[in-house]
Amino acid sequence: MVFSSLLFLFLYLPVVLLIYYVTPLRWRNGVLLVFNLIFYGWGEPVYIVIMFLSTAIDYTHGMLVERYKRRDDDRGARLAVCSSVVFNLALLFFFKYWDFVAGSLAAIGLPLMPILGLSLPIGISFYTFQTMSYTIDVYRGDAPVQRNLINFGTFVTLFPQLIAGPIIKYKELGDQIDHRDYPVERFASGIQTFAVGLGKKVLLANNLGQLWDAYKALPAAELTTAGAWLGVIAFSLQIYFDFSGYSDMAVGLGRMLGFEFARNFDYPYISRSVTEFWRRWHISLGSWFREYVYIPMGGNRVSRPRLCFNLLVVWGATGIWHGASWNFLLWGLYFGVLLIVEKLWLGRRIERWPVPLQHAYALFLVAVSWAIFAVEDFSQLGLYLGAMFGFAGGGAFDGAFFYYLRSYLPTLVLACAASTPLAAGLWRRLPERVWKAALPVLLLCVLLLSTAYLVDATYNPFLYFRF
Description:
It is a single chain. By secondary structure, this protein is mainly alpha-helical. The chain has 2 domains: 6-180, no CATH class; 186-466, no CATH class. Helix content is 72%, strand content 0%. It has 18 helices and no strands. It is globular. 39% of the residues are buried.
């Protein structure tokens, strides 16, 4: 079940909200836990077992960490944290990376592991990172141990951000799991944020995705340089509106249920450097790796060689987190190298460039990264990158490029504008009485247009579900 589906919008969500709000406060977490499991199990009921196992293991380990700390047994507490981390990483490895490693070994003549052909549990990369944060936060003293199993299960399985983020650390949500209020203003803000996210996903990402799919499917001999760039620009906008739209919907749903989640995107395409881009893109993932991997490895307070090593490890892990394929590792290392170059040599020089040149520099490198991210087959990736840099089998332009450009130009222009703070800035300048009258009308239009699209559409992917 996805948020941008008629089933979710007109059946699941209304039923959840109705039952949730007629339930007494002390029972709401239990009711929400049931609905979380129904949501997750809708498409993969077998994998609910994993959710139960993950919840039980991390709940138990949190109690062990707290017990050892109370006895001043730091070694025992550390072992409990390590045990929890090993379990979560082993779970992630088995379902997400086993076949990747087995296939890679077999490809070089070392069939040491059987290929199991297991389907990937939806959102496993997100919820394993969330549950790992719990025992670490308890050990560090950043959060109290959760003694209520129902409350802890609600945190692990919280459906608004369960299967595609944002990644919520336990210390950020623990207090809200135990106690939260339900002001009408927060609920109304949740509806607004959800509607904006739905519009991003359905009206922009889905349409741009069809343009990218058209170019990705072209034989290399027919791909032109202009077409390759048009395709990767379409994908750059698709993945932004797909994922930021989902994140907005998750934040909106959280507010409807009384929770407040942190923002996951901050207009990344207005960045002036790669470093700034990663401060604005998928903020929760960057924060997780920085706090639980990069800083424990020494962070910036190390020698230059060790700093380079730390960054390459973190960004290699960031890349492979996205998918069990070599192109994702390459994508992560590509950013690791760029960030090392900016941190050690180029960063201050970029600040002296003209602002338009800074934006062009960042957008160019990010666009190249999305080609690496999107094309998983290495032979096709080489051909696609070659086409982007002038080695296209189809030449510089062709009739198809101009046809697609004309057909998608309004959507591309709208998407480019919507990826900046321009519209929000203009909106804030309107008189209060104007925007208060216009806002409900605009939100209703977005909901109606999105519903009309979903009624008629067969193309409705969520890119980050596979992660």
